[in-house]
Design goal:
0% strand; single chain
Length: 122
């Protein structure tokens, strides 16, 4: 009986792990076009994409790059103040303490950006 329960637990564990990977992949696929929303400074469409995907920004932030930059840097480069400030508010403050985004903003000429101010305030 113990062997049957162990086998059943393993089968359920593998099934749920594969389902969650499939769901996450579908959610990431739904985020197509997010870079265009950032570049256009369209905060409402950006939020809608996140909501439709069923994923939290902090869960997918590390995996999204636009033009070779992370989302905050891409927002600063494109003067997308609304979206950039929204991203900063949704990410944990500890992320920005170690990310180097504020240093990048200062050396790239974006120190006066409201996004950089939002990062500094956190």
């Amino acid at each position: 009986m113990k062997t049957v329960m162990t086998a059943l637990t393993l089968v359920i564990g593998f099934a749920s792990a594969s389902f969650s990977q499939t769901a996450q992949a579908a959610g990431v696929e739904a985020l197509n076009g997010i870079c265009e929303n950032v570049a256009a400074n369209d905060k409402s469409r950006f939020r809608k994409k996140l909501k439709e995907s069923g994923l939290k920004l902090r869960d997918v932030y590390q995996g999204i790059t636009c033009g070779g930059e992370n989302l905050v840097r891409y927002a600063m480069s494109n003067n997308a103040e609304d979206v950039g400030s929204f991203i900063v508010k949704r990410m944990p403050a500890s992320h920005f303490a170690s990310s180097g985004d504020l240093d990048w903003a200062n050396t790239s000429g974006h120190a006066a950006s409201p996004i950089a101010s939002s990062i500094a305030a956190r």
